[in-house]
Amino acid sequence: MSANPKTNARWWLLIGMLVVIMPLIIAIVFLRPCIFSDPKTTILLVRHAEKGATPGDDFVHPDGSRGPALTDPAGLARAQGLAHVAGEAGVTAIYHTQYLRTRQTIEPLDSIVSGNTTQMFEADRVDDLVNDVLNNHRGEVVVIASHSNKVPEIIERLGGPHLPEIEGGDFDNLFVITVSCKNPPKVVRLKYGQPT
């Protein structure tokens, strides 16, 4: 007994449709996670803590970092304050620039966050930083230590409002930016450590 030609044609049509549709469904599920869920990425963004007056930013330390260190006690105390504020926030990634002052700002936090979480980024490569955070840490809590002129730029590139450059003596801002797929970013400006 031979198979019905109409039935065979329907099966081949169904198989053909599955071959075309399945890769599309797989791509939607894995490449566009925001279609079915709305993971919220939380970014804690700070300017580095108080820094010394010397050496200049052109000075390269033996470890490859640049510029002046944090002041003692004010800068080092603020770095400890950041660790206190963010230490139990579920941080999974920490970023700092190539400058010693940003690395020192996050070191106390890094020492209490488990795992290899710290990454260095070039201060002028804000787009690369934002892409890395949003592509590799979606739905996570991330801390970024940057600079007075770069913090507003990072906020803007994350989709937040345009903010003025941070004043020279202003070190106590902590910006909390929540980024999701379906809603505009939310920015909350907090203060931490001793007022400046």
Write a structural description:
With 196 residues, the chain is an alpha/beta fold. The protein folds into 2 domains: 1-31; 38-191, 3-Layer(aba) Sandwich (Rossmann fold). The protein contains 5 helices and 6 strands, in the order H-E-H-E-H-E-H-E-H-E-E. A 6-stranded mixed sheet has the order 3-2-4-1-5-6, sandwiched between helices. The longest helix has 27 residues, at 5-31. The radius of gyration is 24 Å and the shape is elongated. The termini are far apart. The relative contact order is 0.18. The model has no long low-confidence stretch (mean pLDDT 90).
Compose a concise summary of this entry.
The protein is of the alpha/beta class and 196 residues long. It has helices at 5-31, 74-86, 100-112, 126-136, 151-157, and strands at residues 41-47, 91-96, 118-120, 141-146, 173-179, 186-191. It is built from five helices and six strands, in the order H-E-H-E-H-E-H-E-H-E-E.
The CATH topology annotation of the largest domain reads as Rossmann fold
From the helix content, strand content and strand pairing, which structural class follows?
alpha/beta
Distance between the first and last residues' Cα: 90 Å
**Helix-residue proportion:** 25-40%
Report the β-strand fraction as a percent range. Answer: 15-25%
- Assigned CATH superfamily of the largest domain: Phosphoglycerate mutase-like
Mean pLDDT level: 90
What's the main sheet like? 6 strands, mixed
| Name of the CATH architecture of the largest domain | 3-Layer(aba) Sandwich
Poorly predicted sequence stretches spanning 5 or more consecutive residues = none
